[in-house]
Each structure stands twice: as structure tokens, then as C-alpha cells.
Amino acid sequence: MSDTTASDTPVLDLLATMTTDSVEASSLDVQTIALVRLAALVASDAPAVSYALNLAIAGEVGLDVDDVRGVLTAIAPIVGTSRVAAATSRIVVAIGVGIEQASAALADDELD
Q: Residue 62: phi, psi to the nearest 5?
């Protein structure tokens, strides 16, 4: 099935559309939205890939490690220590994958 109008990444495209729509519909600024999404990831016990995607966006809108720490600290009493510990572990995995990808891209650039 090779429909030229169909995307190779329909699920990612849907997620991108949903994200864009929710940002446009929200009255919050983009930094606050990124922080709220991080809190929701922790509360929903999200996988590392979700953190990777959302932390990349958070970085693009100017958030930093102190902002992430602030969210984790603020929500710990609500979601509990185990969720925050699991989230921290998944964030470390996501950052590690991002570093590996960046290193590979740099190595590829050096070969060119």
C-alpha cells in the first residue's frame, strides 16, 4: 500500500496535531504548558520516550533543569516518591538517548 498522500508516521502526525490544537486552545503560555505536561507525564507513569519528546520541546521554549526539578519537587507530595523516582529514572534515560543521538550526528558530520 503506497498511498503518496499518506504519511509514513501517522501516529506521530496525530500526536503533533493534538499537541498543536491543545496549545492553541489553552490560555496558558507555552512554558507553563510544558511544565504542566511534565507533571502529567509523571502522574501517568509515562515511558522515557514521552519525556524525551516533551523535554525537547521544553528546552526549545526556554525551560531548564531547574524548572524540571521544580516540577518534580512540587508534585512529589501529590504523586508520591515512587512516581517521582521512576520519572527521574526515565528522564535520565531520555537524556542519555538524546546525547547518544547528538554524538552520532556529530560523528556523521565529521565523516562528511
A: 100, 10
> What are the backbone dihedrals phi and psi of residue 63, each rounded to the nearest 5 degrees, phi first?
-85, 155
Question: Cell numbers at residue 52, please?
Answer: 524525551
Instruction: Give the DSSP letter of residue 28.
Output: S
Tell me the C-alpha distance between 47 and 14, whole Å: 18
- Nearest-angstrom CA–CA distance, 92 and 105: 20
Q: pTM above 0.85?
A: no
CA nearest neighbour of 95 among 65, 62, 61: 65
d(CA 64, CA 59): 6
For 7-59, how does the pLDDT look when each residue is reduced to its tens digit (9 = 90+)? Answer: 788 988 898 898 889 999 999 999 999 999 999 999 999 999 899 889 988 99
